[in-house]
Amino acid sequence: MATPLTIAEIIDLERYPLEGDTPARKVLLASLKVDLAARQFCALPGFFRPAALQHVVAEANANRAMANDNISRRNCYFEQKTDPDLPLDHARNIMMQTGNRMLGYGHVPKPSPIRSFYHWPEIRRMVAEIVGVAKLYENQDPWQPANILIYEPGDLSAWHFDSTNAFTMTMMLQAPDAGGEFQMVPDTRSDRDQNYGYVRDVLLGKRDDAIVEVGRTPGELCIFRGCNSLHRVAEVRGDTRRIMGVFVYETEPGVIGDPVVNATVYGV
Ligand SMILES: O=C(O)CCC(=O)C(=O)O
Ligand SMILES: [Fe+2]
């Protein structure tokens, strides 16, 4: 087996000085925290080094056959049924085609830069500070901690709100030739107000002026609050797969997923 890449070979620690409590780290995290609060996302371009990206992309391509094809027609709340009591153009009745391919943590090779990155304690410490929680824990599920999302030509992720997590962390591993933009409409709704009228207008393409584009270069780490901000991945075009890492941390220890949900999401 080849020697695993070290953390310093995976992450650009010169650009992102995450170890210890240096003034440079404090300045970096403070600015990311401000970005997240102001825009609902923050981005760390060039976080993964090219050698690590190459490894991970090769792993993803080699394991493509094990990925679960997630293809459905749904609304932005992940519901697949319309509601006849609501108007036809109500946000809950706007159904969209969506589809990509999902590799779960159990399909990530050992070793892999994906595993080394996910388990490095400094990442959890960094993310906890940026999102403003005291401590974050690894997810203990066999499938959920780190996922690889593969978008082939024609694939997309339609507008949606993330349902459960207070924040989502992604890493662009390979960008497509064209399309595949990650787009977000910050603060589309709030905890108190579903804001259905505005959500409908975004879904119908009437509020493209409010769209912000996020995290598009290979190696770019992105932390975003997707619960109240509609986001989507535009259709991928060209021959190059869009390959994305999605990482899940928890605010309490010992979290594992529901096997029934895992069966649907990962096909396991
Ligand atoms: O593929 C992406 O860039 C983001 C996918 C997404 O919306 C999510 O992980 O919540
Ligand atoms: Fe999402």
What would you call the quaternary organization?
Answer: single chain
Average pLDDT confidence is: 96
* Termini Cα gap: 27 Å
Largest sheet: 7 strands, antiparallel
The poorly predicted ranges are none
| Strand line-up in the sheet with most strands | 1-11-7-14-5-3-2
Distinct ligands: 2-oxoglutaric acid, fe (ii) ion
SS-derived structural category: alpha+beta
Total helix count? 7
Give helix % range. 25-40%
What order do the helices and strands follow? HHEHEEHHEEEEEEHEEEEEEH
Give me the CATH fold name.
Jelly Rolls
Can you walk through the features of this model?
With 268 residues, this protein is an alpha+beta fold. The chain has a single domain, classed as Jelly Rolls (Sandwich), CATH 2.60.120.620. It is 25% helix and 24% strand. The chain has 7 helices and 15 strands. The strands form 4 sheets. A 7-stranded antiparallel beta sheet has the order 1-11-7-14-5-3-2. The protein has a 4-stranded antiparallel beta sheet with strand order 6-12-9-10, covered by helices on one side. It has a two-stranded antiparallel sheet with strand order 4-15. Helix 2 packs across helix 5 (121-131). 34% of the residues are buried. Bound molecules: 2-oxoglutaric acid and fe (ii) ion (FE2). The site of fe (ii) ion has 5 residues, from loops.
Secondary structure blueprint with pairings:
Elements: H1 7-10, H2 23-39, E1 41-44, H3 50-62, E2 68-74, E3 96-103, H4 113-119, H5 121-131, E4 137-138, E5 146-151, E6 157-160, E7 168-174, E8 178-179, E9 182-185, H6 196-203, E10 212-214, E11 221-224, E12 230-233, E13 236-237, E14 242-247, E15 249-250, H7 259-266
This protein binds 2-oxoglutaric acid and fe (ii) ion.
